[in-house]
Amino acid sequence: MVRSRTGRVANVTTVMAAVVALAACTAGGGGGGASGGDEGDGGAGENGAASGGTLTVSTSFVINSLDPGQVYEATGALAVHAMYETLVTFSGSDVSTPEPLLAESWEANADSTEFTFNLRDDAVFADGSPVEAEDVVFSINRLNNLSGSPSVTVEGLSASSPEEGVVVVSSDEPNPSVPTILAMPAAGVLNAEIAAENGATDSEDAASEDSATPFLDQTSAGSGPYVLGSFDPASEVVLEANPEYWGEAPGFDRIVIKNVDAQNQKLAIERSPGAEIALDLSGRLLDGLDSSLQTSGAQDTFYFVTLHQDPEVSEVTSNPDFIKALRASMDYEGIAALFGQDALPAAGMVPPAFPGALPDSETKSQDLDAARDHLDASGLEDPSVSLMYPAITYRGVDLGTIATKVQNDAAEAGITIELDPQPIAAFLDAQSAGRVAFRFSPQSLNYPVASSLVNNFAPGQPSAMRSGWSAELASPEMIAAGEAVQEALDPEAQDTAMQEWQRLLDEESPFITLAYNSGVVVATPDLAGVEYSPAGWQVDLRSVRRS
Amino acid sequence: MTTVILLFGVTVLTFSLIQLVPGDSMTASLSETALNDPAVVSAYRDKWGLDEPVTTQYAIYLGNLLQGDLGISRQTSRPVLGDLMTYVPATLEIAIPAMILSVLLGTGIGLYAALRHGRVGDQVVRVGSLLGLSTPPFWLALVTLYVFFYVLGLAPSGGRLSSWITPPPTRTGMLTVDALLAGQWMTWWDAVQHLLLPVAVLTCLTVATLVRFVRSAMLEVLDQDYVRAARAKGLPTATVLRRHVLRAGLVPVITVSGLAFASLLSGTVLVEQIFSWPGVGQYAFRAASGLDLPAVLGVSLFVAVVYTLVNLMVDLLYGVIDPRIRLS
């Protein structure tokens, strides 16, 4: 009896051990070659897979919606750019020369207030219907009237169609950047008929009347090479090849954009059987990365501190000599080193990825003697100030590490800084209220045009006003420099004006740019066309193929 | 009635507390540039009723709640109820096997330690459970992932399914069950493989607690006169253990198991985060980070319901295990 029971236990144990061993043996091996898209009963093969297979894109999700009219976060822009096409676009990492996409040509009037786009006649939506001027007009006007986060980029723009195949985009102010703005994923062209049938409207009351977002979060209505398969904001976005695509056939049958923690992206891509991209491996996470993997990046983000100019908020931060002392005390080289191999010490506010950046020769450096002189001139004795920053890791870098370095550098000049890390929501709220004496944060451009910074950071503009920097506090030269940027219609003239504006910013603004950091795309060696884009979509999934 | 009062209290408390948190969902949802635009700010406040007094907002929420409407998540723009229906099954899929394994292992190991009280086996179990209790969940999850995925290649890296596998048609939301129902064996096997590491980590964390409770409960029972009497009568050890020790000792163990199960269901944020597991924990974290009030309230209500149901189950199990409770 005892032996029989023991025997049963032994048998059960053996079976369980066999199951566990089988699981262990096959679990990790599942990846081998499976991205070819030919996996068994539940695989892509069931959906009529072609040779492209599956591309896996790992990223730490920042996404709310896949409605082009609502998209402004990185993950949303990445997916929307593959499903919706814009009038113009950019190739690879270049953001200086818009290229034709739905528009085969365009021209601007003399004062850059009116842009005429001529549409190509062979583009079709995923349902086979042609892309027409009405669709473009509907999409741009809807984006504007939705009054969502991305709407601010097209503020002051309106679209109309004077004739078939032609779209005219008008700007309230002279704006040579209109083609660049219209290359952003938010300006993706919707199939107006399908969108309207599902609650979309481009009327002026679209902010309250448009109800298409839930539909567009489940079904795409664009003309891009991929269509939406499924969307779960917590775990994955699945894109499927658009069989009706009018251009070159997409490179993959499916693209699965997965929500993966940055640390795990590194582990996963180093063990990947192929066809995989990781989007959050920047900074120190790139150290020791397998050399067979390909990387592409561009310095497109700047990190800066802001000092409030209102003496009622802080007598210390509003003191011009204190700002100069702090500026001189920073070890810019050392700060950049903390970000990792792809970071650079700052020169001006515009990161090197964009035209209008200051040359390397103007990179700032630490000058502790000058810092102490400025501090003496400030009349402040043993100044102490609290530095608020969001307690997050951004692009692989813990902002607390950078804030601590700022604290130590300032201490060398006799300035005491107390660190005040805040949850991101609390930081954004305090920043929005405009009463933070001293804060540190990263910043990217809304769209890849350096002059967009002038709209925000010039004295009297919204971001400047949050630090109390009104036009009255700025010198006439500073004001004039900002106006020169806005008035320059020629790209080269605008870049020159932008550089001059930054030099003045460095002399008298309450902003101290510390370093530039890169966005980086890491890909398995079997992929081609993987290039980081500072345009907002990070990598153009449309152009990624097997090499 | 108690449950209704409890749920009402949860809504009042959560609604009030979230008003005290600095910041609101607008600053967390809109871009910085958009926050500079009064038209965008006004449209957002209008859309989500943020200009209404807090009491009015709460009254509207309560009115909708009574009709089964948990509101729309400000982050996902989808009904909170729908979101919960998506994420709860994912959590259930790892919580249920983890709990079953924990109870089986916890009871077995705890009983073993009690029977070998003071000997080497007992000491090993005590040290092991202490290690389990003092191990941070995120550390264990990271190490497990590193060793079994990265070094040994024995398990997938995370998520619920490999990228190249198309999910089965949704019926229960639990991929292993849905794949079985659809007869997709390879999908089922892939889903099972993805369960291994998160379930193993959750089991390790839960079993450590259970072992200590089972051990001390069993030690107490083993010392009772009626157990000594049963042994003195010459009953086989297995019978004594099954009939007299386990039944009596399991009452406190069930209480702890119930709480542990409720804890697993209400979200294991770090484990879900590390294994890219889209469950309730990740949803709750995302909602709290974005100050997404309807979603936070929805998760709070879910957690309250889970604890209520688990307590009910625990009460019923008491009656099954101990006739004195049933009779009283």
Automatic annotation (TrEMBL), chain A:
GO terms for biological process: peptide transport. InterPro entries: Peptide/Ni-bd (IPR030678), SBP_5 (IPR039424), SBP_5_dom (IPR000914). GO terms for cellular component: ATP-binding cassette (ABC) transporter complex; periplasmic space. Keywords: Signal. Residues 30-46 have a biased composition (Gly residues). Pfam families: SBP_bac_5 (PF00496). SUPFAM superfamilies: Periplasmic binding protein-like II. Residues 1-23 form the signal peptide. PROSITE patterns: PROKAR_LIPOPROTEIN (PS51257). The keyword Signal applies. Residues 30-49, 199-219 are annotated as: Disordered. One of its GO terms (molecular function) is peptide transmembrane transporter activity. Residues 97-460 form the Solute-binding protein family domain. PANTHER family: PERIPLASMIC BINDING COMPONENT OF ABC TRANSPORTER. This is ABC transporter substrate-binding protein.
UniProtKB/TrEMBL annotation, chain B:
PANTHER family: DIPEPTIDE TRANSPORT SYSTEM PERMEASE PROTEIN DPPB-RELATED (PTHR43163). The keyword Membrane applies. Its main location: membrane. InterPro entries: BPD_transp_1_N (IPR045621), MetI-like (IPR000515), MetI-like_sf (IPR035906). GO terms for molecular function: dipeptide transmembrane transporter activity. It holds the Pfam family BPD_transp_1. It comes from Phytoactinopolyspora alkaliphila. Keywords: Cell membrane, Membrane, Transmembrane, Transmembrane helix, Transport. It is found in: Cell membrane. The chain crosses the membrane at residues 94-115, 127-152, 195-214, 250-275, 295-321. Belongs to the binding-protein-dependent transport system permease family. One of its GO terms (cellular component) is plasma membrane. It is a multi-pass membrane protein. Residues 88-318 form the ABC transmembrane type-1 domain. This is ABC transporter permease.
